[in-house]
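2024-03-11 09:14:02 DEBUG pipeline.ingest accepted 1 chain
2024-03-11 09:14:02 DEBUG pipeline.ingest length=867
2024-03-11 09:14:03 DEBUG pipeline.predict start
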Amino acid sequence: MGYEPSKESALIADQPARAKVFISYSRKDIDFTDRIEAALNARGFQVFIDRREISALEEWWGRIETLITQADIVVFVLSPDSLTSTYAQKEISFAGSLNKRLAPVVYRRVDGQVVPEVLAKLNHVFFDDEANFETGADKLAEALRIDIKWVRLHTEFGAAARQWSAAKRPNGLFLRSPLLEEAERWIAARPKGAPTPTEETRSFIEYSRAATTRRRNILTASLILGLVVALGLSSYAFYQRSKVQQELGRANNALAAAINNDLNFAPILPFTTRSRQALWTLALADKAVKRSFVSALINSPGEMLRTAPGFIQISRALGLMWPSEAEAQILFDLSVSSSRSIGLANLSVPVLNALAEGLSEEQTTQALGRLLPQLGQANDFALRGVAPAIEALAPKLTKTQATQALDPVLRQLEKTTDAIAVQQLVQTFLALSVKSSEADARRALDPLLRRLAEAKVPWSIIALAQALEVLAPELTEAQARQALDPVLRQIEETIDPSSLEALAQALQALPANPSESKVQQAFEQLLRNFRQRRTPFELQRMAGAIRSLAPKLTEAQAQVALDPILQQIGETTDTSALQALGQALQALVTKQAAFETRQALGSVMEQFGGQGTSPKTLRMGGHELQALAPKLTQAQAGQALDPVLYHLAYTTDPSVVQALAKALQALAPKLTEEQAQRILHPILQQLVTTFDHEALQALAQALRALIPKLTDSQAQEVFDQFQLRVVRTIDSNVLSALAEVLEALTPKLTDSQAQQASRTASSSLAWASSKDEAVEWARSLVVLSLLLHEQSNTEQLVAAIAYPTAAGPATEVLLEAIRARNPTAPRAQAGTDAVLKWLATRYPWILDPPICPEPPQSPSIPDFKCP
């Protein structure tokens, strides 16, 4: 089939798309970077910016590489901090390796510091004068638009070349006419000053031309041969039939390769439009194409691991009962050996989990028998591959087998020195502990505490703290007291925010109370660390740590923590950090007495001044009101309502909209029906005018809280807005919140509305871009199905299980509802595989390719449709 551009591609004529800009910056420059992002968005650019950090470094960097690769231009925010930032330098180095156009902007002068050569030789746009920010933004936008069509093609052809190289240069990914001619014209027409194509891109185009010439020669020879055969060589009929079969086989292989090429999944990121369409193409393909696809996985386990984040969805697309026991065993063994040999243990986990489900009891026993000796003899590096394999087998093990596996896991945990191996072993222990006895689980306490006392690397500390948190309910009071000292000692010694959050959660879970002096020491250390944090990620993690420690604090200690939390709420605009800070605030406020609550409410009401109140003050007031809401009386909640509604009606700041919507959501249970009904129109108005994803999500959640108190006519208004918003929305988090709105709205729908909503929920589930979104649509579909005919409601849920994007937790939601309506269905303890086999006997049509419902967004997104 060859390479095909995406729907957003610059290669598609007459389809202008926004230029894509990645911003590289130091976390200490986040406020300025937010302004640059907003300025470029307002000037028609699509901005990529990394706001999230996660504990698995390789997953985080993979996400950054993806964003830079997709970007046409990389803007680098120059400041003393960005020049000393390891990550910012790494981003610029990677962008340079792709020959990306770079655009340095000066936020703070860097006199006396060495600027990387790739940036020093370029013209800089200066933003060090606050008064001229808009002028600078106009200059930057003008510079970014120079030769932008050529630069966008640089991105497109560069990405195609990287896919080709990453896939070991297969013929199926070469450029073909007319794209090949377009590429040759593009490379010959490079404007002066534009970034040069990489050697990889040049080779890709040259090899594509050579392959096209070969194909033309082969086609010419084939036509001549066909003519000769047609003129009289009838004895070759069988040969020709064989040839046709070979060509058909090649076509199937090419289609399978093209589908695999489009299946690009990144950890923690939503599935792209292209990946979802590829899943449906695979689901609707005939058996021959699916066999070619599976053969490619068997022949290239590395490809299987490449698609790991979406492997469970790929499995569903291949068929409800895929893999067979034989395929599961082959692929499981290949995944274990591949992950061990190339060090892709983290990637292998979802693959191993999906394949282990298909193993028979005998195969599971055989696999465990092979893995346990390997575990006992494995070095630190090999442990990364073997431990996840045993973790994947854990749900299928008997109690005896789980106990048998626990011993070597604990022995390796005591002696390994590798941080990643410790993390993998702890996760394996947690999976096995579900099947183990309480006594077996408690045996792990001593090695876990010894490792925790010695741990220095954040990954190890996090994994060990999480294990203690899970183990806590099984501990005796004496064992819990034994665990307190190493946990408190690590809280005092470590400075890593993620480690501190995990340790605080473990401390909260332990069924023993430390002395007040020890809590005070830990609390003071957390506050010191909190005050020193500036990046959104650090604030998020430290706020989580304070929230977890809150139940152990006295009223006086909780009061001390309130001021720095409120200060950070006023200063940060990052939505994830604000959410975590709000949750910490809520946990601390629960310690307040009634008198202190009245005082705090009075203070909040003073913050909600007139129309000139600053966004910072409104954010603080909104989050503080959200925290106070559970402790307010009905009268106090009513008192708080008017100023919130006033500011919600007039504000255009997304972070303020989000804070006020969260406050309304928290107040809703305390309001009368009349008060709740007054909130509806301001929220619906913001739903129409707001485009910020986080603000939309908060508005949808507030709306959900109000629905039980609305009249039927108001419910009709909400339903109409719901339908409009679903069609216009592609953000997975917002769609998840809208699914929750639909679930709450269902009891107030008419029969015709329920039918319409059911179609929306079903198609949204079929095209969900994340597991969380799929779960919410599955829940909505279950609630709606109760309004339909008894037989058709179950069949609708059964049909939805076959959707590729319904694989995973969404399937469990649907199966739970089906089991509740069918007493003969296997219980949950029998496992998902057993229930799916029962479904296949009761509803044989589920084994056929599923019917693809058109995505709700089809009218607003060109070419987004079923294959």
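2024-03-11 09:14:41 DEBUG pipeline.report The two ends are 15 Å apart (CA to CA).
2024-03-11 09:14:41 DEBUG pipeline.predict end
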